[in-house]
# Entry
Amino acid sequence: MVAEDLLLITGARRLVRLWALYGRMDLLFFARGPHTALPWYLSEVVVALAAVTATFLLAERFDDIGTWTRPQVYFLLGYALLVHGLIETFFSYNIAFISRRIGRGQLDHMFIEPLPLWMILLAEGFAPVGATSSLLPGVGLLLWAASQLHLAVGVAWWGLFLVNVVASMAVVLAFAFAWGSLAFWAPRAAEELNSSTYELSHQLAPFPLDGLSGIALASLVTVVPVGLVAWYPSRILLGLEAPPWAPALLPAAALAFVALATWIFRRGLRNYGRTGSTRYSDSGHRR
Amino acid sequence: MVGLDRLATVTPDTVVELSGAWKVYRQRVRSARLGDIFGNLLRPEVRIVEALRGIDLTVRRGEVVAYAGPNGAGKSTTIKLLSGLLAPDRGRVRALGMDPVRDRVRYVGRIGVVFGQRTELWWDHPVAASFEWKRVVWDIPRPRYERMLGLVRELLGLDDILRTLVRELSLGQRMRADLALVLLHEPDILLLDEPTLGLDVLARRRILTFIRELNRERAMSVVVTSHDMAELEQLAGRIVLLHQGQIAFDGDFTELRGLLSGRRVLTLETSSAEPPRLAPAELIRSESGRHEYAFDATEVRLSELLDQAAAQTEVLDVETHRAPIDHVVADLYEHWLRTPAAST
# Structure
C-alpha cells in the first residue's frame, strides 16, 4: 500500500513537472510571434463564440427557451464553452483528436518516450496559453449567468460543479477516443474521424434538449452523448432535476463511457503492437 | 549464394538477442476491376507477408552492426521490434535483459532511436527547447545532461544552430540535432534507421565520424540500417544482410567481399571512341574513348581481355580494381532476386 502511494505521488509529481514543461513551451511559442499569435487567438475566440451564438440569440429574442430562463440558458452556454475550453487547454495538439495521431502513425513518437501512455496523453496536449480561446469566454459567460441567477453557491455546490465538469470532459474524450480508435484498423479512412465527433459535441452541446421525444433524448445521452456535455449537468447544477439520484447519473455514465473507450482503445493498441503503423505523416507533429 | 548464417550466441556482454523472431503482416489485395467490387467487400483476398522469418541475432556491448538488405527485406521491422514498437508473432526479442514491449517504459529510457525520415525535434521551437524537453521527459539528472550536452555540442558542432527554429534548419543540420537529442540521456543502445538518408556528402561524413567516435569512447552498441554500403563499411565492423526476412549473411566486410572475390572492374582508354567488345566482360559505361567493364577474374584472365582489346583498337591506358562494395552487394541482391528464398 505504501509502495502504491509512493508510486501515485511520484506519478503526480511527474505529471505536474510535465504540465509545467508543456505550459512553458506553449507560452514561449505564443510569445515568440505575438503579431501572428494574437490575430489567430482572436479568430479562435470568434469561432468558439459562434458555436453558442444561435442559442444565445434565441434566448435574447424570446427571453427564454422552453422552461429555461435567459440566465439559465447563459449558464448552459457558459458551461458548454468551459467544458470544451478545458478539453482544448489540456488535450490540444491532437490528443483530443487522437484519430489523427493514430492514423498518421505518430503513436511511435509517444512509445519511444519513457513514460506510461496515460501520462503522455494527460500531459502532452497541455496548452494553457494558446488553447484557451473557449475557456476564457466560457468562464466569463458562466460568471455573468451566475450573477444573474443568484445561485446559492456553497462548498457542496462547488464540489458538484467540479465533479460534473470532470465527468462532462470525460464523456467528450471517451466519445472521441472510442471513435478515434477506429484509426487503428483503418488509418487513412479514419484519420479525420475525430474532427466530426468533436464538432458534433461542440455544436450540439449548447442546446436545451427539453421537450424532445423519449427516443431522441435517450439517443442524445447514450449513442451520441451530447446531452451529457452541458445540458444535463446544467440542469443538475441549476437544481432543475428533482430525483435525489440525479447528480450521480452523469459521473456513472462518464465512468461507463470511459470504460468502453478504454476497452476499445486497448484493443486498438494490441492491434497496433501486432501490425504497427502502415503509414506515416508528420502533419501536426511537434508544433 | 552460400549464406554465413550464425545462430544467436548469448554471452554476458550480449545487449540484443533475437531468437527465432517471426513477424508476419496481412495485406488486403484489391482488384482494380469494377466487377470485383462485391468480391473485394465480401471475400477480400488477403496476402501474407512474412517480414521476418525466424531471425537469430545477437549484438554485443560496444558492437556496431550494419543491418542491410534490399527494400522489403525486414530491416525496419527489426528496428521496430528492437524499439518496442512491434511485438514478434513468434520467437523472442530481448534487449538489455528486458522485453522491449512489456518493459517499454524502463527499456526506452536506455535506448535511442532515430528514424531517418522522422524527427523528434519540436518544429516551432529552437533546437535548445527540444533538448530541454528531452531532459524533463526523460528525467535526465542535471549533471549527466550538462555533460552529454557539452559532448554533442562539441562533436556535432551545434553551437550555431542551438537557437535556430527547427523548421528553419537544413536537412543535415536537422539530422545533427536529432542525433544529439537522441544521445542526451546516454543510451546503451543506439538504433539508427537510415540516419543519413538525403544528406549531402559533408553532412554524411560528419555524422559517420560522430557515430564512430561515440562508439569508440562510450562503447555504445549501434545497429544501423542503410542502403549505402560504402557508408556502412566505414561505420561497422560487422554486417548482417537480410534477404526475404532471413539472415543471408552475417560477418565482416572482408568476408562479404570474399563471397564475390573475382569481381573486378577494368577501365580502358583507347584511341577510338567505339568500345572494343570483350567477351565475357560486361560493358558498364563508355565515354570519350574511356570504357569501363565488369568481369569475373575467376572466369576470364585479365591478359585475355587485354589481348582482345589490343586486337580491335589501340589501347592507351589500362586500370583495374576490385569492384566497390556497393557493386558486390548489388550483385548479391540480383542473385537473390533470381533465387527462391528457401535456398538462402
